Amino acid sequence: MKSGSNLEKVLRAGHFAFTGELGPPRGTTAEEIVEKCEHLKGMVDAVNITDNQTAVVRMASWAACLILIQEGLEPNFQMVCRDRNRLAMQADILGAYTHGVRNMLCLTGDHCMFGDHPDAMGVFDIDSIQLINMVKTMRDEGKFQTGADIEDPPKIFIGAAANPFAEPYEWRVHRLDKKIEAGVDFIQTQCIYNMDRFRKWIEQANDMGLTEKVYILAGVTPMKNVGMARYMQKKVPGIEVPEDLIDRLKGVGKKQVAEEGIKIACEQVEEFKEMKGVHGVHMMAIEWEHKVPQIAEQAKVLPRPQID
Amino acid sequence: MIVAERKPFEEIKEMLKGYKKVLSVGCGTCVAVCLTGGEKEVAVLNAELDMARKLEEDPIELGAATIERQCDREYLEVLDEMVKPYEALLSMACGAGIQFLAERYPDKPVLPAVDTTFIGVNQDVGWYEERCRSCSACVLAWTGGICPVTMCAKGLYNGPCGGTDQGKCEISQDQPCAWFEIYGRLAGQDRLDLIKRFYAIVPWKNQKPRTLIQPGYKKPEQAK
Fold first, then answer.
1. Do residues B60 and B49 lie in contact, with contact meaning Cβ atoms separated by under 8 Å?
2. What are the sequence ranges of the domains in chain A?
3. In the prediction, which pLDDT does B222 show?
4. Distance (Å, whole) CA B8 – CA A267
């Protein structure tokens, strides 16, 4: 065991993992997190806690992680390279681990211009692949970036993102390979809507033997309505929404669109369960945490495995 | 070259408030080439300031001098006598030139009339683009001659990130994705192996003021 996290145990035991996501509040209301946690308990193996998602200030990811731990859920601490330099990152890793955080997702982060402080300096002291390697060096060698020893090194299960839908497509598996070389343990992909493109990517990853070196969790976000689908299609960088998916949502009565969105997501989960090289699903029900029990039920991923 | 942009007129006017006799100092090198702070631009700025202050019934006496380079002592020397009668100096050089001018005349207020913008190239007359952040550790050998530190909005060493959008950067459809271009150029040269390897964390060399002394040369105090 590299970290002994629940997510690591589930994946190592060969189960199909199911992870969720939770965005911290834009304020100090812990109750908001606690309420979201209620919907996720028993439904997922770990919960990603976003880090100033879309460059908008929120409660610190590590702080929200601690509330999850108090609530009995396992957090996946997301860390972006945009807001901290290597000192702050290593310090936060030590602090989060000390308080019980065992999973991390290492991300580049959206550019500041997307968020609520568009004129802020983007730090980017290191990039996401270098961050992976930094966490691995801390864990496996017990060393800071300067080479100095860490007392009781943090044992973190190291995650990263992958986007099969950003050009150049043929490059994406090589980027995955670089993340593996840097030391990543698991991958959570960008939201998948174009299944053809994803099948090609995973096939390439299988052919290169990459899916034997890293756990892949396919990213799924159910569409709540047609407006959301259009927004994702037009506005969100790196997300590809095929027109026939929007047609399918439009094809049902207005009141049924949300149910249709969930149905599509569950069909995706069913396919991922059978897909070679996919080891689980990362369900990003954005501001829809209360729907996760229904989604988990409908996607037949319950009960979640309990491993000691 | 170093590219600079003239400050908004109102900002310059505000800086000069209270001064009655100011010498505007242009620079004949980079900022002249990019049409910001050469002899002609000094004349234009002085004319605008002269008119604005007359309209406000608060006239100002403006002198003009453009030297070859404000970042070079050899050229600054000619100003030594000239600056004496003036209350303040308004420099149209880059930030380096402005500071060297201020260093030479420490009892004179030296004010910047331009914002130094970037090290860039001349795409066409009046059209300049940034190309270098002077990081002191050039990687162009393995990035196909395209600088990821400057041209990638996140300065990534292991790009492209997931925000590449049809060859454009996530920040704007007008901004090409540097890593998309690096990939394309290296693919064309059959050199993709260069970026398949993991590039480790960078020891930044630009986090403190830098000095360069060429081999065989010394600082004056060392030479003594």
1. yes
2. 6-298
3. 62
4. 58
Provide the β-strand partners of residue A186: A159, A215
Between CA A305 and CA B68 the distance in angstroms is: 76
ipTM of this predicted structure: 0.94
Chain B touched by A238 (CB under 8 Å) = yes
Contact B180/A110, CB-based, under 8 Å?
no
Provide the Cα torsion A125, A128, A133, A134; round to 10°: 40
Of B156, B166, B192, the CB nearest to A127: B156
Query: Is any Cβ of chain A less than 8 angstroms from the Cβ of B201?
Result: yes
Q: Which two tokens stand for residue B175?
A: 């901004």
| A76 phi and psi angles, rounded to 5 deg | -115, 105
**Nearest chain B Cα distance for residue A197, angstroms:** 15
Class of the CATH domain delimited by B2-118: alpha beta
Q: pLDDT tens across B179-221, in order?
A: 999 999 999 999 999 999 999 999 999 999 999 999 999 887 7
DSSP for B133-190 reads: ---SS--TTTTTT--HHHHSTT--SS---TT-BTTEETTEEEEE-HHHHHHHHHHHTT
Within chain A, how many helices (H) and strands (E) appear? 11, 8
The CATH 3.40.50.2300 portion of chain B extends over 2-118
Tell me the average pLDDT across B24-34: 98
For the structural domain made of A6-298, what CATH number should be given?
A: 3.20.20.220
Sign of the dihedral through C-alpha A164, A165, A166, A170: positive
Q: Identify the bridge partners of residue A20 per DSSP, sorted by sequence position.
A: A47
The pLDDT of B83-103, averaged and rounded, is 98
Q: How far is B127 from chain A (nearest CA, A)?
A: 24
Using the Cβ of B163 and the Cβ atoms of chain A, whether some distance falls under 8 Å is answered with yes
What is the model's pLDDT at position A208?
98
User: In angstroms, rounded to a whole number, what is the distance separating the alpha carbons of residues A232 and A280?
Assistant: 23
pLDDT digits (tens, 9 = 90+) for A81-139: 999 999 999 999 999 999 999 999 999 999 999 999 999 999 999 999 999 999 999 99
**A217, A248 contact by CB (below 8 A):** no
CA angle, B55 then B58 then B61, to 5°: 105
Angle between the A195-207 and A172-182 helix axes, to the nearest 10 degrees?
A: 50
Question: Would an 8 Å CB–CB cutoff place A125 in contact with chain B?
Answer: yes
List pLDDT tens digits, range A236-273: 878 999 999 999 999 999 999 999 999 999 999 999 99
